[in-house]
Amino acid sequence: MTLLAHDRYCDEIAHQVDQLRAVVTSGADLATTVPTCPDWSLEDLVRHMGGALRWVDALVRGRAQENIPFDRIPLCGGPEERGDAAALDAWLAETGELVVGALREAGPDTKVWSWQGNATAAFWARRMANEITIHRADATIAAGLPYELAPEVAADALDEWLDLAVWFQQYRGDEEAHRLEGPARSIHLHATDADPALNAEWFLEFGPDGVRWRRDHEKATVALRGPLTSVLLAFYRRLPLDAPGLEVLGERQVLDFWLSRASFG
Fold this sequence. Notes:
Blueprint: H1 6-24, E1 33-34, E2 37-41, H2 42-61, H3 85-106, H4 121-143, H5 151-171, E3 185-191, E4 201-207, E5 210-214, E6 222-226, H6 228-235, E7 247-250, H7 252-261
Parallel strand pairs: 3-6
Antiparallel strand pairs: 1-2, 3-4, 4-5, 6-7
Helix pairs in contact: 1-3, 1-4, 2-3, 2-4, 4-5, 5-6
């Protein structure tokens, strides 16, 4: 696995903010429920995503060495008036400029508090690029709009999710809802449309000794095959496993078990 360059993550955040703004200004009903995040309306989702970006801007810009509560961050919750697409769009545009500027100025190695072991600006650039990638999918699903993603970004988002799954098993393993122990099982993810040079195949093993993964082609207990972006969204539980183009081979209950336990984002 090779991480993308810090500037590439910054570029992607800027691009995804622009794409999310396009959803906001598309004429979609901001009050519509987001099917993949049913506790939120489309406006709630946009405010959540923009608030997360403002939070990261505050952390990185201030070189924070401890968490900063959301209520200490100006405009973290979005514009005062609800239902105003123009105001929401302007707020999101400013938000993107702030966080991308802070991340670029900091560079990847600047020390910044994080909730995970990698306490650097690099962690936040990658995390926010992938966070907005997934939440823009939520937004486009809610608005009934098409969704596209660069292959290298989709592959990195899967890599990061699997890294986080391993981390969560170490630090949240005492929470029954997130435990993956049991008999040894494995999952193979195979992107059928990716350039072979991307090596867009993943092999996961989980059982009594925890979770391990690697980029590889191996026979597994169950396999999920399909277009790379669809595999990513299915693994993030944004698409059903029987969505067009996806194919499950082997013991589907193993994949269902993973998806029910390894949740994030």
